[in-house]
Amino acid sequence: MLRILFMGTPEFACPTLEALIRAGYPVVAVVTQPDRPAGRGGKLQPPPVKRLAEAHGIPVLQPRRVRHPDAVAQLRALAPDLVVTAAFGQILSAEVLAVPRLGCLNVHASLLPRWRGAAPIHRAVMAGDTETGITIMWMDEGLDTGDILLQRAIPIGPLETAGEVHDRLAALGAELAVEAVRLVAEGRAPRIPQDHARATYAAKLTPEDERIDWRESATQVVNRIRGLNPWPVAHTTWQGQILKVWMAEPWPEPVPAAPPGTVVAVARGKGPVVACGEGAYKPLPAHQN
Question: DSSP 3-state helix, strand, coil percentages of the chain (rounded to 5)?
Answer without folding.
Answer: 30, 30, 45
